[in-house]
Amino acid sequence: MPLVALTGGIASGKSTISRRLAEHGAVIVDADQIVRDVQSPGSPVLTEIAEVFGPSVIRDGALDRAALGAIVFGDEAALAQLNGIVHPAVRVASQRRFDEALSADPDAVVVYDVPLLVEARVDDPWEHVVVADAPADLRHRRLVELRGMTAEEATARIAAQVSDERRRAIADVIIDTSGAIEHTLAQTDRLWARLTGAAG
Fold first, then answer.
1. Which regions span the lipid bilayer (predicted)?
2. Of 9, 26, 90, 109, whose CA is between 20 and 30 Å from 99?
3. Considering the domain 1-26+109-200 in this protein, what is its CATH number?
Protein backbone atom coordinates (compact mmCIF):
# COMPACT_ATOMS: atom_id res chain seq x y z
CA MET A 1 0.00 0.00 0.00
CA PRO A 2 1.73 3.19 -1.09
CA LEU A 3 1.23 5.82 1.62
CA VAL A 4 1.49 9.25 0.04
CA ALA A 5 1.59 12.63 1.77
CA LEU A 6 0.13 15.47 -0.27
CA THR A 7 0.87 18.97 0.94
CA GLY A 8 1.10 22.53 -0.28
CA GLY A 9 0.64 26.10 0.81
CA ILE A 10 -2.77 27.71 1.09
CA ALA A 11 -4.43 28.13 -2.33
CA SER A 12 -1.75 26.00 -3.99
CA GLY A 13 -4.21 23.76 -5.82
CA LYS A 14 -3.80 20.81 -3.47
CA SER A 15 -7.53 20.08 -3.49
CA THR A 16 -7.52 19.79 -7.28
CA ILE A 17 -4.77 17.19 -7.09
CA SER A 18 -6.55 15.33 -4.29
CA ARG A 19 -9.83 15.18 -6.21
CA ARG A 20 -8.07 13.88 -9.32
CA LEU A 21 -6.32 11.15 -7.37
CA ALA A 22 -9.65 10.19 -5.82
CA GLU A 23 -11.17 9.94 -9.30
CA HIS A 24 -8.42 7.48 -10.19
CA GLY A 25 -9.24 5.38 -7.12
CA ALA A 26 -6.96 6.67 -4.37
CA VAL A 27 -8.21 6.57 -0.80
CA ILE A 28 -8.02 10.16 0.43
CA VAL A 29 -7.52 10.79 4.13
CA ASP A 30 -8.21 14.47 4.79
CA ALA A 31 -6.23 15.91 7.70
CA ASP A 32 -8.47 18.98 7.94
CA GLN A 33 -11.54 16.76 8.29
CA ILE A 34 -9.81 14.70 10.96
CA VAL A 35 -9.01 17.89 12.86
CA ARG A 36 -12.70 18.82 12.76
CA ASP A 37 -13.66 15.30 13.87
CA VAL A 38 -11.33 15.20 16.88
CA GLN A 39 -12.54 18.66 17.94
CA SER A 40 -16.23 17.71 17.70
CA PRO A 41 -18.67 18.55 20.53
CA GLY A 42 -18.09 16.38 23.57
CA SER A 43 -14.65 15.21 22.48
CA PRO A 44 -11.71 15.11 24.92
CA VAL A 45 -9.78 17.39 22.57
CA LEU A 46 -12.49 20.07 22.66
CA THR A 47 -12.69 19.80 26.44
CA GLU A 48 -8.94 20.36 26.73
CA ILE A 49 -9.02 23.28 24.28
CA ALA A 50 -11.70 24.96 26.42
CA GLU A 51 -9.69 24.33 29.58
CA VAL A 52 -6.56 25.89 28.09
CA PHE A 53 -8.02 28.76 26.07
CA GLY A 54 -11.18 29.54 28.03
CA PRO A 55 -14.93 29.28 27.50
CA SER A 56 -14.95 32.03 24.86
CA VAL A 57 -13.76 29.51 22.25
CA ILE A 58 -16.92 27.42 22.67
CA ARG A 59 -20.26 28.45 21.17
CA ASP A 60 -23.38 26.30 21.57
CA GLY A 61 -21.21 23.36 22.62
CA ALA A 62 -19.01 23.48 19.51
CA LEU A 63 -15.63 24.99 18.79
CA ASP A 64 -15.78 28.63 17.69
CA ARG A 65 -12.92 28.45 15.19
CA ALA A 66 -12.85 32.19 14.61
CA ALA A 67 -12.54 32.90 18.33
CA LEU A 68 -9.79 30.31 18.74
CA GLY A 69 -8.02 31.59 15.64
CA ALA A 70 -8.05 35.12 17.02
CA ILE A 71 -6.21 33.84 20.10
CA VAL A 72 -3.57 31.68 18.44
CA PHE A 73 -2.96 33.43 15.11
CA GLY A 74 0.38 35.22 15.32
CA ASP A 75 1.07 33.90 18.84
CA GLU A 76 3.65 31.14 18.52
CA ALA A 77 3.36 29.99 22.14
CA ALA A 78 -0.44 29.73 21.99
CA LEU A 79 -0.29 27.95 18.64
CA ALA A 80 2.25 25.48 20.03
CA GLN A 81 -0.12 24.81 22.94
CA LEU A 82 -3.00 24.17 20.55
CA ASN A 83 -0.90 21.90 18.34
CA GLY A 84 0.19 19.96 21.41
CA ILE A 85 -3.46 19.18 22.11
CA VAL A 86 -4.66 18.52 18.57
CA HIS A 87 -1.77 16.87 16.73
CA PRO A 88 -1.48 13.71 18.86
CA ALA A 89 -5.21 13.02 18.44
CA VAL A 90 -4.98 13.64 14.70
CA ARG A 91 -2.02 11.27 14.46
CA VAL A 92 -3.97 8.45 16.14
CA ALA A 93 -7.10 9.05 14.05
CA SER A 94 -5.20 9.25 10.77
CA GLN A 95 -3.28 6.05 11.49
CA ARG A 96 -6.57 4.31 12.18
CA ARG A 97 -7.82 5.40 8.76
CA PHE A 98 -4.61 4.25 7.08
CA ASP A 99 -4.99 0.85 8.76
CA GLU A 100 -8.65 0.60 7.72
CA ALA A 101 -7.74 1.33 4.10
CA LEU A 102 -4.98 -1.29 4.15
CA SER A 103 -7.30 -3.84 5.71
CA ALA A 104 -9.97 -3.19 3.06
CA ASP A 105 -7.50 -3.33 0.15
CA PRO A 106 -3.82 -4.18 0.67
CA ASP A 107 -3.03 -2.62 -2.73
CA ALA A 108 -4.83 0.67 -2.11
CA VAL A 109 -3.04 3.95 -2.79
CA VAL A 110 -3.66 6.03 0.33
CA VAL A 111 -3.15 9.77 0.09
CA TYR A 112 -2.90 11.83 3.26
CA ASP A 113 -4.02 15.35 2.32
CA VAL A 114 -2.17 17.33 4.98
CA PRO A 115 -1.49 21.08 4.86
CA LEU A 116 0.85 21.05 7.87
CA LEU A 117 3.13 18.23 6.80
CA VAL A 118 6.35 20.18 7.28
CA GLU A 119 5.17 21.49 10.63
CA ALA A 120 3.82 18.24 12.10
CA ARG A 121 4.46 15.01 10.16
CA VAL A 122 7.56 15.47 8.02
CA ASP A 123 9.47 12.58 9.62
CA ASP A 124 6.72 9.98 9.21
CA PRO A 125 7.54 7.07 6.86
CA TRP A 126 5.85 8.28 3.66
CA GLU A 127 6.58 6.38 0.48
CA HIS A 128 6.17 9.61 -1.47
CA VAL A 129 5.79 13.26 -0.53
CA VAL A 130 3.92 15.27 -3.16
CA VAL A 131 3.96 19.06 -3.04
CA ALA A 132 1.47 21.29 -4.85
CA ASP A 133 3.50 24.30 -5.84
CA ALA A 134 2.54 27.77 -7.06
CA PRO A 135 4.23 31.14 -6.53
CA ALA A 136 3.14 33.09 -3.46
CA ASP A 137 1.89 36.02 -5.52
CA LEU A 138 -0.43 33.73 -7.48
CA ARG A 139 -1.70 32.08 -4.32
CA HIS A 140 -2.28 35.54 -2.87
CA ARG A 141 -4.36 36.48 -5.89
CA ARG A 142 -6.39 33.28 -5.61
CA LEU A 143 -7.15 33.99 -1.95
CA VAL A 144 -8.41 37.47 -2.77
CA GLU A 145 -10.26 36.68 -6.00
CA LEU A 146 -11.61 33.20 -5.23
CA ARG A 147 -11.95 33.13 -1.45
CA GLY A 148 -12.86 36.73 -0.79
CA MET A 149 -10.02 37.58 1.55
CA THR A 150 -8.64 41.08 1.83
CA ALA A 151 -5.12 41.58 0.57
CA GLU A 152 -3.94 41.94 4.16
CA GLU A 153 -5.64 38.71 5.24
CA ALA A 154 -4.15 36.83 2.32
CA THR A 155 -0.66 38.15 3.07
CA ALA A 156 -0.99 37.14 6.71
CA ARG A 157 -2.23 33.64 5.93
CA ILE A 158 0.63 32.96 3.53
CA ALA A 159 3.20 34.45 5.90
CA ALA A 160 1.95 32.24 8.74
CA GLN A 161 2.86 29.06 6.84
CA VAL A 162 6.29 27.57 6.25
CA SER A 163 8.15 28.79 3.20
CA ASP A 164 7.75 27.30 -0.26
CA GLU A 165 11.45 26.42 -0.12
CA ARG A 166 10.96 24.23 2.95
CA ARG A 167 8.09 22.38 1.31
CA ARG A 168 10.04 21.83 -1.90
CA ALA A 169 12.99 20.53 0.10
CA ILE A 170 11.00 17.53 1.35
CA ALA A 171 9.25 16.76 -1.95
CA ASP A 172 9.66 13.55 -3.92
CA VAL A 173 7.27 14.97 -6.53
CA ILE A 174 6.43 18.62 -7.18
CA ILE A 175 3.27 19.39 -9.14
CA ASP A 176 3.34 22.86 -10.66
CA THR A 177 -0.15 24.31 -10.25
CA SER A 178 0.61 27.76 -11.61
CA GLY A 179 -0.72 27.08 -15.12
CA ALA A 180 -4.00 25.90 -16.57
CA ILE A 181 -5.91 23.29 -14.62
CA GLU A 182 -5.36 20.84 -17.48
CA HIS A 183 -1.63 21.08 -16.84
CA THR A 184 -2.14 20.28 -13.15
CA LEU A 185 -4.38 17.32 -14.00
CA ALA A 186 -1.91 15.94 -16.53
CA GLN A 187 0.88 16.01 -13.94
CA THR A 188 -1.44 14.32 -11.45
CA ASP A 189 -2.26 11.61 -13.98
CA ARG A 190 1.46 10.94 -14.43
CA LEU A 191 1.82 10.76 -10.65
CA TRP A 192 -0.98 8.19 -10.49
CA ALA A 193 0.72 6.08 -13.13
CA ARG A 194 3.92 6.23 -11.11
CA LEU A 195 2.16 5.30 -7.87
CA THR A 196 0.23 2.41 -9.31
CA GLY A 197 3.33 1.20 -11.11
CA ALA A 198 5.15 1.21 -7.78
CA ALA A 199 2.19 -0.54 -6.17
CA GLY A 200 2.07 -3.22 -8.83
1. none
2. 9
3. 3.40.50.300
